[in-house]
Amino acid sequence: MADAPYNKAGRSNWAVNQDRLWDDLMALGAIIEPDKPYTRRSFSPMFLKGRDYLSRRFEEAGLAVSIDAGGNLIGRLEGTDPKAGTLMIGSHSDTVPGGGRFDGVAGVVAGLEVVRALKDAGIAPRHSIEVTDCLAEEMSEFGLSCVGSRAMTGSLEPAMLDYTGPAEESLRDAITRMGGRPEAIKAEARDDIKGYLELHIEQGRVLESEELDVGIVTTIVGITRIEITISGLPDHAGTTPMDLRKDALSGAIEVVGGIRDKARALAAAGEGYFVATTGEFYLEPNAANVVPGKVKLVIDTRAQTRELMEQFLAFAKAELPALAAGQGVEISELKILSDSLHTECDEGLGDLLLQASNELGLTSKKMTSGAGHDAVFFSRITPAAMVFVPCKGGRSHCPEEWSDPDQLAAGTALLFETLRKMDRR
Ligand code: GLV
Ligand code: MN
Ligand code: MN
Fold first, then answer.
1. What is the pLDDT of residues 325-370, one digit of tens each?
2. Which of 142, 149, 190, 236 has the highest Cβ tally under 10 A?
3. Is the shortest distance between the CB of 371 and ligand 1 below 6 Å?
4. Is the CB of 138 under 6 A from ligand 1?
């Protein structure tokens, strides 16, 4: 690996150290649930072990390590000008169940490598630099994603702290368990961040198929998550005739099909990117000899424009109840768990990334992200931008997720150069 070219153009004079970056990623890829590669769920003991590793590496790099009120792990390098404010590089170290070794954690380790490279080059930045592992970016068991970035940017609504997860634990208590201080989240919302950068694997096939080194993100889709409860009547599966049952699962099948058909229609309409997924499904009592009494679904919908999302929400509220009623059951609750608008990344930072990318000789394109990212919340309080690096076959949220060491190093070199330009501005 040491002899590999840093990217296909064969440049090797970059400030960042590809092997050091890769070794940290692979070390974190080994801190996972033993029977479930490569799973490190937020709020789990394994997640805390991953953070122990990161904390040690932050300290070895000379960063001051802390956990903020929202449970984010931060490594801070003090700038030479106390009035300049903070430049942040962040992403997340949690994974989806059965996730991969790159989604999120690549961005955290890239941030760490940028700071190490600054030190190696003897550069003392004017701004303070923070490398941040945002808490629970992935949809958590509390029905919320981007918990830490919402908290840090003043976007975590107080009612969200009451969301409950396994064993009825509240999100408030879970954040405390991660070392956060939920009562201080509001007061400690940040106002000193002068810019935010995030490196991430693309999680799609565009860069690979066009053989490009990096993507510069312009727009991140809006994500709305909806929880739908369908209620019927649990009954004896042997003695309840077919025409007398209220089978919640039969209703749910219609609802799921209706969502799929509407999403296909919206996607085909040509008004922008739209997808909807019924990815969570809970059945009660989930027993072979009982007619299903209750089904809970969580729907994840993503849209490039608010108009598309509004069309889908109007459909869900107006037409899904009738689909359930057709099976003699009802939608007893339709709850919007979270609703974030699509995000435009900062144009000025995007141009700076493009300039640095050209100077490094990297091939690039500006592109939209269909995945959600912590950058969404940072963009509400500061200029924020993202760099995508290619990943094999576009695969993500699965164990097969992969990016080559030189692809990650190219993106990290771009972060390094762009951060330096931001520091000089
Ligand atoms: C984040 O991984 C998302 O769900 O887009
Ligand atoms: Mn993800
Ligand atoms: Mn991610």
1. 999 999 999 999 999 999 999 999 999 999 999 999 999 999 989 9
2. 149
3. yes
4. yes
CA of 266 to the centre of ligand 3 (A): 25
Burial of 412 (0-12, 13-18, 19+ CB in 10 A): buried
Domain with CATH 3.30.70.360 in the chain: 222-339
Domain limits, CATH 3.40.630.10, in the chain: 11-221+342-424
CA-proximal residue: ligand 1, atom 1 (nearest): 372
CATH annotation of 222-339: 3.30.70.360
Please give the distance, rounded to the nearest whole angstrom, from the Cα atom of residue 374 to the centre of ligand 3: 8
Q: Are 158 and 151 in contact (CB under 8 A)?
A: no
Q: Which two tokens stand for residue 100?
A: 């991969």
Q: Which among 20, 412, 6, 408 has a CA at the least distance from the CA of 207?
A: 408
Predicted confidence at residue 13, as pLDDT, reads 76
pLDDT of res. 11: 59
224-257: pLDDT as tens digits: 999 999 999 999 999 999 999 999 999 999 999 9
Q: Which atom of ligand 1 is nearest to 397's Cα?
A: 2
SS3 content of the chain, % helix, strand, coil (to 5): 35, 25, 40
**Ligand 1 centroid distance, CA of 14 (Å):** 30
- In CATH, the architecture of 11-221+342-424 is 3-Layer(aba) Sandwich (3.40)
Q: Which residues of the chain have pLDDT under 70?
A: 1-12
Residue 372 CB less than 6 A away from ligand 1 = yes
Residue 94 in contact with ligand 1 by CB distance below 6 A = no
Taking only the tens place, the pLDDT of each residue in 39-51 is 999 999 999 999 9
List the shell of residues around ion ligand 3, using CB closer than 5 Å.
Answer: 103-104
Tokens 């999120």 belong to which residue? 104
